[in-house]
Each structure stands twice: as structure tokens, then as C-alpha cells.
Amino acid sequence: MHRFEETWRSGDRRGFVIECSSGTYVRSLIAELGDAYCLELRRTRIGSFDVGDASQERLIGLDEALGFLPAVRLDEETATRAAHGRRLTDVPDLPDLRPGAVARLLDDGGLIALAQVEDESGQLRPIVGFRG
Description:
The protein has 132 residues and is an alpha+beta fold. It has helices at residues 26-31, 62-65, 76-83; strands spanning 3-10, 13-19, 45-46, 49-50, 71-73, 102-107, 110-117, 124-129.
């Protein structure tokens, strides 16, 4: 939890601003206040995306949209294997990622796939391919 702030109060009703990580169940937080329930819930930000920017006619590339995920750069041979959905066991300079984490696989041509870290050995399994 980064921020939990009451912004207004009117009788029994209250408004809050909550800044939290993904996976936080905001309705449960409100229920923990006692005899309370969530009448209205509005998400205003996800990562670098803000609802205030939603009215702008702006298209962004897939790599930018997924930019919150760690990037793993691959050489040509490893990139070819990843593009065909093969598990990667020999990736040099692999960032420190926990099992289950998802990373972007990139080469000089851009985004290849998303891959999940299989176990402590750092084996990567492509789960969504963008090139074949």
C-alpha cells in the first residue's frame, strides 16, 4: 500500500484515494473499515497509463505498452528459438527474475515474445509470441 487517504466526508459516506500495487483487492480494504462497503470504484492509473490521458488520440506500440515488464535481450540464434516457442535455458545477462515472473524477449528487430521464468534455474518459456 502506497497511499490510503480520506479525501471527503459527508454524514456516513466517505471518499478515499488509494494508491496500491496490482493485485490489491480494494473492496476488501474498504470492508476492513468495519460496517463499510464500496459504493463506487474508479481506477485512474495502471503503471504509466493515466485515465487523464485516455481522451487523447494517441496510439502506442506494443513494446511501449508492455514497457513495465523487464526486458531480456537475445542474440540472433536464441531469438529464433524463442520466436518458435522453444524453452530458453542459456540466456546470458538474464535479469534477476523470480519464478513465475514475465519478461519481454527482444532482439535487434524488436519484440519477439513474452516469456515466463520457469524455476530458479532461470529457464524461460515463451507464453505469447509476436513473431514466428
